[in-house]
Design goal:
With about 100 residues, this protein is of the alpha+beta class. The chain has 4 helices and 2 strands; from the N terminus they run H-H-H-H-E-E. The longest helix is centred in the middle third of the chain and has 25 residues.
Length: about 100
């Protein structure tokens, strides 16, 4: 079997898998789109300096439990940094805004 035949076979297998799992793929794409929209709102709310989770939730109009979850995920991937404290709350800032 030459390289072209192998490539054609892989392409056919991928098409078949996409068709077999179309519902899962569509559901996953919808979740990703929703997550990206949520994070876009968070980034907009976080512009302009450090904010606590309640401040981010208030500025974005999103529930604070979900804000906390997403901010922690963004922190894990170095998109957000912990930069200080405001009373009992940590302050978070977008990584691109933090002066090193």
């Amino acid at each position: 079997m030459n390289a072209k035949e192998k490539a054609r076979e892989r392409t056919t297998a991928l098409k078949r898998l996409r068709e077999e799992h179309a519902e899962t793929v569509a559901r996953t794409q919808a979740l990703l789109k929703e997550q990206q929209a949520f994070r876009k709102k968070l980034r907009a709310a976080m512009k302009g300096g450090p904010k606590t989770i309640p401040q981010i939730a208030a500025a974005s109009g999103l529930p604070s439990d979900k804000v906390l979850w997403h901010v922690m995920a963004m922190k894990k991937y170095d998109m957000v940094r912990e930069v200080g404290r405001d009373a009992d709350y940590y302050q978070y800032q977008l990584a691109e805004e933090v002066a090193e």
